[in-house]
């Protein structure tokens, strides 16, 4: 199978990640729940992984790196824990449902007002439109680093500056970029960075987190066992315990730790350059095929390695099915949990077929995908 | 040629019926749910059943009171792969 | 049961501080190890550092260098 669904999850992981998880499964006790070697082994790895992530993302304090089971959980923790009734939040039409649904919930159930900056036909938003929507009650800008549908990236430095100039929080969904693109919370004035471990970080599913820069109190999403201060009837207020009730996914975090080491040793820029090259190779190979419509802004290579397209007016699900069944190429069709992005692109009815490239893909695989698209376009040509 | 897609609200429903159909020897396979059918469901899985198996599939569903959302027919939009050796 | 000995015990507000201190001591070669917090001491975190009493100066220096504020430090029979 040619796996081109890396935006959903990176199916191929570095061997060191797999080894780390397997090893942890026979050596880890429960972190923060004891002082014996089993518990300490787990505690140490978790502690060091916080430090690695803090360094990786430019987060000033490692105790404010909070582990969650994925970016969706991180976003829910951040968004449900930051706002009060009467607050106003600005976000965009580029967002994934893991940003939109918590925001809608805040709007519908918690008296928070919401403004979504529209995207153009190429799927881009204009940061000036964010600034235009700021009002006295505005508390935060919440946006994605890159769209999981078009691959278009937002200029976090520019948006962060807008947030800082107006004294706003800046919450970033880095699901599509953490591990691949350059992210520095200090430079980009990011208040809360939400990330997932199982996409570009090439870690296990069930890992992710949020990094908090500065003195930002987030109300706990869940409360419960913390391993420390057991006689307190409320969740301990200090980070990270404040937002980490229950047993952490120690085995997964061990894998995530190995994944960060792998990326650092290989070079984040090296990985990003290869993925970008494969994306552009594919884009150039398909963009002029009769019947093919490619979505997104390809005027820049500063974008995530995603190419979404349609062929004639073929149902995107049928195309994806054909790619899988006949050509053994894995892609994702449908709405991609990004309903507003589809609406902006005009693809609500048809959906789109998304090809997303990863570190372990090859030029040969990319060329075969191009050939498959050409063939399907020929076979689906209207008579 | 019309092919039939059994639609679901979630993967659990789909996988449950897939198991039932397999057990009863009704030919079916998992396919992406067509985008055009229901906007609400176009992200999920569907079970693709050829025209000849449709009645057997429906009987199996009724027998087991299996949960599904809808069954829709769609024309195959692609011509077969051309003979590459001609 | 093994014999109790007189040790210098450092208690911490958080597990994070305890782990950070262990790492700091290991990298500086300061003797000691993490143990369950003795019952006589009350602290936020259930892990405490147990060091030979004569290492108090090294322990205090390591706390300062690592930027960690201990919750308590005292001698204990453990």
Task: Summarize the structure in words.
- The complex is a heterotrimer of chains A (383), B (86) and C (78).
- Chain A is of the alpha/beta class and 383 residues long.
- Chain A is built from 12 helices and 13 strands.
- Chain A has a 7-stranded mixed beta sheet with strand order 2-8-7-6-5-3-4, sandwiched between helices. In chain A, strands 9-10-13-12 form a 4-stranded antiparallel beta sheet, covered by helices on one side.
- Chain A is globular.
- Chain A starts with a strand and ends with a helix.
- The relative contact order of chain B is 0.31.
- Chain C starts with 5 loop residues before the first strand and ends with a strand.
- Chain C has a 4-stranded antiparallel beta sheet with strand order 2-3-1-4, with helices on one face.
- Chain C has one domain (6-77): Alpha-Beta Plaits, CATH 3.30.70.980.
- Chain C is globular, with a radius of gyration of 11 Å.
- The chains are: A alpha/beta (383), B alpha+beta (86), C alpha+beta (78).
How would you spell out the order of helices and strands of chain A? EHHEHEHEHEHEHEEHHEEHEEHEH
Q: Termini of chain A, distance in Å?
A: 31 Å
What is the level-2 CATH architecture name of the largest domain in chain A?
3-Layer(aba) Sandwich
Major beta sheet, strand line-up of chain B = 2-3-1-4
Residue-averaged pLDDT of chain B: 87
Question: Which runs of chain A of at least 5 residues are low in confidence (pLDDT < 50)?
Answer: none
Keyphrases for this structure?
heterotrimer; A: 383 residues; alpha/beta; Aspartate Aminotransferase, domain 1; Aspartate Aminotransferase, domain 2; 4-stranded antiparallel sheet; 12 helices; globular; B: 86 residues; alpha+beta; 4 strands; 28% helix; 26% strand
What's the quick description here?
Chain B is of the alpha+beta class and 86 residues long. Chain B has two helices and four strands. In chain B, 28% of the residues lie in helices and 26% in strands.
Write the layout of secondary structure elements.
The complex is a heterotrimer of chains A (383), B (86) and C (78).
Chain A: E1 2-3, H1 15-27, H2 37-57, E2 65-68, H3 71-82, E3 88-92, H4 97-109, E4 113-117, H5 127-132, E5 138-144, H6 156-165, E6 169-173, H7 185-188, E7 192-196, E8 208-212, H8 250-266, H9 268-286, E9 292-295, E10 306-311, H10 316-325, E11 329-330, E12 332-334, H11 339-345, E13 352-356, H12 363-379
Parallel strand pairs in A: 1-11, 3-4, 3-5, 5-6, 6-7
Antiparallel strand pairs in A: 2-8, 7-8, 9-10, 10-13, 12-13
Helix pairs in contact in A: 1-8, 2-8, 3-4, 9-12
Chain B: E1 2-7, H1 11-23, E2 29-32, E3 45-50, H2 54-64, E4 70-75
Chain C: E1 6-11, H1 15-28, E2 33-36, E3 47-51, H2 56-66, E4 72-77
Antiparallel strand pairs in C: 1-3, 1-4, 2-3
């Amino acid at each position: 199978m040619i796996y081109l669904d890396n935006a959903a999850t990176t199916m191929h992981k570095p061997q060191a990640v797999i080894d780390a998880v397997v090893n942890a499964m026979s050596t880890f006790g429960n972190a923060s729940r004891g002082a014996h070697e089993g518990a300490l082994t787990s505690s140490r790895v978790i502690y060091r992984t916080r430090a690695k992530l803090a360094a990786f993302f430019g987060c000033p304090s490692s105790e404010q790196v909070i582990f969650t089971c994925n970016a969706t959980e991180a976003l829910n923790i951040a968004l449900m824990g930051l706002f009060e009734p009467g607050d106003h939040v600005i976000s965009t039409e580029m967002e994934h449902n893991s940003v939109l649904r918590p925001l809608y919930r805040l709007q519908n159930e918690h008296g928070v007002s919401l403004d979504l900056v529209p995207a153009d036909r190429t799927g881009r938003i204009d940061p000036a439109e964010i600034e235009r929507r700021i009002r006295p009650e505005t508390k935060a800008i919440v946006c994605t680093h890159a769209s999981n549908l078009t691959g278009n990236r937002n200029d976090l430095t520019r948006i962060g500056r807008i947030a800082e100039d107006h004294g706003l929080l800046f919450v970033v969904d880095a699901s599509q970029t953490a591990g691949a693109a350059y992210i520095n919370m200090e430079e980009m004035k990011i208040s809360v960075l939400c990330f997932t471990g199982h996409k570009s970080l090439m870690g296990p599913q069930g890992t992710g987190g949020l990094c908090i820069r500065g003195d930002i109190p987030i109300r706990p999403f869940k409360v419960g066992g913390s391993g420390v201060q057991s006689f307190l009837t409320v969740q301990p207020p200090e980070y990270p315990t404040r937002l980490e009730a229950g047993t952490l996914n120690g085995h997964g975090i061990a894998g995530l730790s190995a994944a960060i080491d792998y990326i650092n040793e290989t070079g984040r820029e090296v990985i990003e350059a290869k993925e970008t090259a494969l994306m552009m190779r594919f884009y150039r190979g398909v963009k002029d095929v009769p019947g093919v419509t490619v979505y997104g802004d390809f005027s820049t290579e500063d974008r995530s390695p995603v190419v979404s397209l349609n062929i004639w007016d073929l149902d995107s699900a049928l195309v994806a099915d054909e790619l899988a069944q006949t050509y053994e190429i894995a892609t994702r069709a449908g709405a991609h949990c990004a309903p507003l992005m589809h609406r902006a692109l005009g693809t609500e009815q048809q959906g789109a077929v998304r090809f997303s490239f990863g570190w372990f893909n090859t030029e040969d695989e990319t060329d075969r995908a191009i050939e498959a698209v050409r063939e399907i376009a020929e076979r689906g040509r209207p008579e | 040629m019309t092919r039939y897609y059994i639609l679901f609200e979630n993967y659990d429903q789909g996988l449950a019926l897939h198991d039932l159909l397999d057990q009863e020897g009704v030919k079916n396979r998992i396919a992406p749910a067509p985008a055009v059918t229901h906007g609400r469901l176009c992200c999920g899985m569907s079970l693709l059943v050829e025209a000849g198996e449709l009645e057997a599939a429906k009987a199996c569903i009724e027998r087991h009171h299996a949960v599904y959302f809808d069954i829709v027919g769609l024309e195959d939009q692609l011509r077969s792969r051309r003979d590459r050796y001609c | 049961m093994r014999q109790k000995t007189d040790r210098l015990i450092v208690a911490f507000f958080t597990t994070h501080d305890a782990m950070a201190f262990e790492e700091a001591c290991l990298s500086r070669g300061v003797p000691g190890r993490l143990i369950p917090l003795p019952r006589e001491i009350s602290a936020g975190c259930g892990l405490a550092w147990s060091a030979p009493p004569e290492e108090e100066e090294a322990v205090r220096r390591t706390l300062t260098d690592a930027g960690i504020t201990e919750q308590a430090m005292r001698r204990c029979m453990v």
